[in-house]
Amino acid sequence: MTAEIIKLKKTVPCPICGKPSSQQFHPFCSARCQDIDLNRWLSGGYVIPARDDEEEAKLPDADTGDEDE
Where in the sequence is the domain holding 30, given as residue range(s)? Predict the structure, then answer.
């Protein structure tokens, strides 16, 4: 009797290099691509650009409230 191998995760292209992903490093193809992705996260490479001054302009000022009335 032989055991049937069941793939747990779908093989998709590696998001770093495009090679087929491996089960061990899913969704990456290797430890190298996994480390590249981690470095991008830690160095701020995946930051969504935003402007802080637009957010501050939309917020009401705490000093202008009419609390004394």
Answer: 10-44
Considering its fold, how many domains does the chain have in total? 1
Tell me the CA distances in angstroms from 8 to 16, 27, 31, 34, one per residue in order.
21, 12, 19, 19
> What is the rounded distance in angstroms from the CA atom of residue 45 to the CA atom of residue 69?
49
Nearest by Cα to 16 from 51, 60, 46: 46
**From CA 18, how far away is CA 48, in angstroms rounded?**
23
**DSSP secondary structure string for all residues of 19-34:** SBP-STTTTSSSHHHH
pLDDT tens profile 21-37: 998 998 999 999 999 99
Q: What is the pTM of this model?
A: 0.57
